[in-house]
From TrEMBL:
Taxonomic superkingdom: Bacteria
Entries under SUPFAM superfamilies matching the protein: Periplasmic binding protein-like II
Keywords: Signal, Transport
A Pfam family it matches: SBP_bac_1
Cross-referenced CDD domains: PBP2_TMBP_like
InterPro entries hit by this protein: SBP (IPR006059)
Organism: Actinoplanes palleronii
Protein name in the entry: Sugar ABC transporter substrate-binding protein
Length: 432
């Protein structure tokens, strides 16, 4: 009931009081969260052009990156929402809460049975209804400077202790041989913006056996302050505060600032996604780094964050049939193959969600298979609550505070965060 009320209230703001007259020839306005002028934007443009060529429905792509969500809110306030938004899976709850997206009737969607069950999970709201169409999936792995590691005579890390030892060696051992103390171990996007700190931390948390929340059937209690979660936080703070093996300035770094730190030789270990491989191959050199799974943590497992993007059909569109047809094309074998962009850095489909796509036929780079295996072997999406954004942001604020202030007590901070989670669960009607 709370979700339904929020949708209705939000739609009054986003869509206006009256439904617009439908027009099957109306141009679809498609917003993508990509840097303007990037190769990924070019791929999105090609996807839209191919869709138009196939269906006759005109489409225009607008690439936005900085403050994407703020700009979307402004468009909603002005009652000028785009028809389609392609954005992160963990933004679903907030879009539903504000009534900015319409429900998807999966049964009537052409090709829906070809999409993987796990990808549909990431398009499903806390009320069990579907509010997006899966478009792309991804997992994360460690990118390690192989040339640095071999120069120092060290092995590929098999445990967290190995990983930390390698990071300390990269920090103190002059792996680039320039005689200057200007290299570090970890590259970490630890900014609070968009909740990056907790986004990065999720894989460490789950690999340590910890969790943000625990529960079932949409009812949760906080788990962020249990012993396993505390151990994961202590690992993160050790990297920053005790070992001092993290690139300086990481507490304010977003991903756009973190990527160059790896490819320019500031840091040698980076937990990131497959979309960076083509970029690093070009800017650093494929022979200088390796990609390996995150070693098992204290929980005995290696668990990657799973995420990706959905095609969101925005509320109030004058061309709802066109919205549906675009979603069907984007998830078809042709649309997914185009979006994968081969082995180039223009990929907007990281791991295809269409089970009929032959990944090996599209991509010759076998490193993609590592990420596919990590995704299939237990990668986890964030908990399905009505709106994940407040949890992600409050966790990021707490974690960022701990790595920025090494005198802070992790247990005290996590107990306070657990109470914040409890209050938010109560507010969202999701408390066990």
């Amino acid at each position: 009931m709370a979700v339904t009320a929020a949708v209705a209230a939000g739609c009054l703001v986003a869509c206006g009081g009256d439904k617009p007259a439908t027009d099957a020839k109306a141009e679809l306005q498609i917003w993508v969260r990509k840097p303007p002028g990037s190769n990924t934007e070019k791929t999105d443009q090609q996807l839209a052009a191919a869709f138009t060529a196939k269906t006759g429905v005109p489409a225009k792509v607008t690439a936005l990156f900085d403050d994407f969500e703020t700009k979307l809110q402004q468009a909603a306030a002005q009652k000028k929402l785009p028809d389609i938004v392609i954005n992160d899976t963990d933004r679903l709850g907030g879009l539903v809460k504000q009534g900015l997206v319409r429900e998807v009737d999966r049964a009537t969607l052409a090709g829906q049975a070809d999409l993987t069950p796990s990808s549909w999970q990431a398009a499903t709201g806390a009320d069990g209804k579907i509010y997006g169409v899966p478009f792309s999936a991804q997992s994360f792995a460690l990118f390690v400077r192989k040339d640095w590691r071999e120069k120092l005579g060290l092995q590929t890390p098999k445990t967290w202790a190995d990983m930390d030892a390698l990071a300390k060696a990269f920090t103190a051992g002059d792996p680039d041989g320039n005689g200057k103390p200007d290299t570090y171990g970890y590259v970490i996007p630890a900014s609070t913006k968009r909740g990056y700190t907790s986004w990065y931390f999720a894989s460490l948390l789950w690999s340590a056996g910890g969790d943000f929340l625990t529960g079932a059937d949409g009812k949760f209690t906080p788990a962020i302050n249990n012993p396993q979660s505390l151990a994961a936080v202590q690992e993160l703070t050790k990297q920053f505060c005790t070992d001092k093996s993290v690139v300086p300035g990481s507490v304010t770094a977003e991903t756009t600032q973190a990527h160059p730190l790896f490819e320019t030789g500031k840091g040698g270990i980076y937990l990131t996604g497959p979309y960076n491989m083509a970029r690093f191959d070009k800017n650093l050199g494929k022979d200088k780094y390796e990609v390996v799974a995150l070693p098992p943590g204290p929980g005995g497992k290696s668990v990657s964050l799973a995420e990706g993007e959905n095609v969101y059909l925005m509320a109030g569109s004058a061309n709802p049939d066109g919205q549906t047809r675009f979603a069907e094309y984007a998830t078809s074998v042709d649309g997914q193959t185009l979006g994968m962009a081969g082995d180039t850095d223009g990929n907007v489909v990281r791991l295809p969600v269409n089970s009929k796509v032959d990944t090996a036929a599209v991509r010759k780079d076998t490193r993609w298979q590592l990420f596919a295996g990590i995704y299939q072997d237990g990668a986890r999406y964030v908990p399905v609550v009505p709106d994940w954004t407040p949890f992600r942001q409050s966790a990021a604020d707490t974690l960022n505070g701990l790595v920025a202030d090494c005198a802070a007590d992790p247990k005290t901070a996590l107990d306070k965060l657990a109470q914040t989670f409890t209050d938010e669960l109560t507010k969202q009607g999701a408390k066990a």
